[in-house]
């Protein structure tokens, strides 16, 4: 009886024997140097956690891409959150990863230490509850995410509208994944032989959202999950495509991803948000890559409610977070890494976020 026949469905994707077999096939088939980018920050963490880099041939280089929502946030958006936190009439709510990201003059953790009412939440619906409990305060949620979380944010805005929670608003720094990949392919110096595409995003967008980029650039691309077998299988498929010189867009995560994704989630997202140009850390302005509230939901837009118009702000001197997000540098090639920039005293968001490449390098690379 084959070894895997004794395993449960979930155990299969973590089974060491299957993973060893996949590594052997990768080594057998790979004949030339390849630069493969895992787009998703969760993939970056999984790759380090499971030691996947250490078992691959030296000819395969894994690059971390712009798939960590906190890492790609523009400096001016952090500055906007700091300004909101300083208002005595505001309760600012945020996920924990954003707290320590340095702005131009401060961070949310720094403002909280000075007495600002900044609260960490686990869900945007926690922020809604805080708004209900504090009708005399304006409660603002720092909306930072990709397609994975934008539908939930949209659902909270719809709930606020239905329930008349008028003291609730969001400041949106939400972004879309496919436009960033297209921008990468047009950036001088970026060399990528294949994309490991984000499984969580694809659950919402489906495989179809990546077809325009694939058709234009013909780069091998595989959507996959987050277990060792998932990631190694994606690497194998990218190796095979490069060796055969026949690029394909492959769904290697069919247990969670359909070609059409989740139409209901996208409908909620599109009901509340519309696309807009957005500034990405290190990459710059990308057309139609952001998500902002539609006019009919302006009352929930903190930028408009508090008349915030933030100028573009320079990123920290010496910080290579942007270049790391584009696959142009590894974290240990940044001159600040482990010197001026550590998890306790981060300079850039790549060292702050639990999905950041610098944080992963620091934690798992010794």
Summed up, what is this model?
By secondary structure, the protein is an alpha/beta fold. The protein is 38% helix and 17% strand.
Please name the defining characteristics of this protein.
366 residues; five-stranded parallel β-sheet; globular; 12 strands; alpha/beta
Q: Please list the strands of the largest sheet in the order they lie side by side.
A: 2-1-8-9-10
Poorly predicted parts? none
Question: What does the oligomeric state look like here?
Answer: single chain
The secondary-structure class comes to alpha/beta
Written as H for each helix and E for each strand, in order along the chain, the element string is HHEHHEHEHEHEHEEHEHHEHEHEEHHH
Q: What is the straight-line distance between the termini?
A: 41 Å
Helix and strand arrangement:
Elements: H1 9-12, H2 16-29, E1 34-38, H3 41-49, H4 52-55, E2 60-64, H5 75-85, E3 90-94, H6 108-113, E4 118-120, H7 124-133, E5 138-143, H8 150-163, E6 168-172, E7 174-175, H9 177-185, E8 194-198, H10 199-205, H11 211-217, E9 221-224, H12 228-244, E10 249-251, H13 263-272, E11 273-280, E12 284-293, H14 302-305, H15 321-325, H16 357-364
Parallel strand pairs: 1-2, 1-8, 3-4, 3-5, 5-6, 8-9, 9-10
Antiparallel strand pairs: 7-12, 11-12
């Amino acid at each position: 009886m084959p070894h895997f026949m004794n395993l449960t469905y979930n155990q299969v994707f973590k089974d060491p024997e299957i993973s060893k077999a996949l590594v052997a096939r990768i080594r057998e088939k790979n004949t030339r140097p390849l630069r493969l980018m895992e787009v998703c920050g969760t993939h970056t963490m999984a790759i380090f956690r499971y030691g996947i880099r250490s078992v691959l041939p030296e000819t395969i280089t894994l690059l971390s891409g712009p798939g960590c929502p906190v890492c790609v946030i523009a400096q001016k958006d952090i500055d906007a959150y700091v300004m909101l936190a300083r208002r005595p009439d505001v309760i600012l709510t945020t996920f924990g990863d954003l707290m320590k990201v340095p702005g131009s003059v401060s961070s949310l953790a720094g403002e909280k230490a000075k007495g600002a009412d900044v609260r960490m939440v686990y869900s945007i619906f926690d922020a809604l509850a805080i708004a209900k409990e504090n009708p005399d305060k304006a409660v603002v949620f720092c909306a930072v995410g990709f397609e994975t979380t934008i539908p939930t944010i949209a659902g909270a805005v719809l709930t606020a509208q239905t329930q008349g929670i008028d003291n609730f608003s969001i400041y949106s720094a939400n972004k879309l994944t496919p436009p960033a990949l297209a921008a990468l392919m047009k950036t001088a110096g970026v060399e990528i032989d294949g994309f490991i595409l984000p499984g969580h995003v694809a659950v919402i967008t489906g495989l179809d959202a990546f077809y325009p980029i694939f058709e234009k650039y013909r780069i091998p691309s595989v959507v996959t999950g987050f277990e060792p077998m998932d990631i190694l299988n994606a690497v194998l498929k990218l190796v095979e495509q490069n060796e055969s010189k026949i690029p394909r867009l492959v769904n290697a995560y069919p247990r969670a991803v359909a070609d059409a994704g989740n139409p209901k989630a996208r409908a909620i997202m599109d009901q509340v948000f519309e696309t807009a140009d957005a500034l990405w850390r290190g990459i710059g302005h990308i057309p139609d890559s952001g998500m902002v509230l539609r006019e009919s939901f302006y009352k929930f837009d903190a930028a408009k409610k508090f008349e915030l118009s933030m100028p573009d702000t320079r990123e920290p001197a010496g910080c290579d977070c942007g270049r790391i997000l584009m696959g142009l540098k590894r974290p240990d090639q940044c001159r600040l890494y482990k010197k001026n920039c550590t998890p306790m005293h981060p300079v850039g968001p790549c060292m702050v976020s639990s999905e950041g490449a610098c944080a992963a390098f620091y934690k798992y690379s010794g």
